[in-house]
Amino acid sequence: MRLLFVFGVVGIMLLIAHTEAVRCNCNCTLNYIPLCAVDATGDEDTFPNQCALECYNCTHNKDYVVRRQGECSHTTTTRPRTRPISRTA
Ligand SMILES: *[C@@H]1O[C@H](CO)[C@@H](O)[C@H](O)[C@H]1NC(C)=O
Ligand SMILES: *[C@@H]1O[C@H](CO)[C@@H](O)[C@H](O)[C@H]1NC(C)=O
């Protein structure tokens, strides 16, 4: 029973992924022309090229916009450190 349910879930996920792949233009080349993009929440991410970015935007329902050419720096300087230090020494 449970196994059947798992197969069902996987099947639905595959179906959704397939539908989105058709709906979105993910027919990308593997050219590596990195772009640094930022989404609505301020998350920076490096994408291998414009097409991959648009594909991700579409399949994940995201709103990444290109911030600059090249990879994002690993230290996100733009995002303020909002996380409080919870441990009181
Ligand atoms: C995907 O790209 C290839 C190579 O550029 C092209 O021949 C093909 O028609 C494209 N397919 C779609 C669905 O755009
Ligand atoms: C990603 O989606 C947002 C919202 O639809 C759009 O404004 C933005 O231009 C898209 N980015 C790319 C690279 O297509």
From TrEMBL:
Entry-linked InterPro entries: Kazal_dom, Kazal_dom_sf
UniProt feature coiled coil, ranges: none
Keyword Signal in annotation: yes
Key words, A-Z: Signal
Domain Kazal-like, first and last residues per copy: 18-74
Signal sequence segment: 1-21
Gene3D superfamilies for this protein: 3.30.60.30
Protein name from the UniProt record: Kazal-like domain-containing protein
Natural source organism: Gryllus longicercus
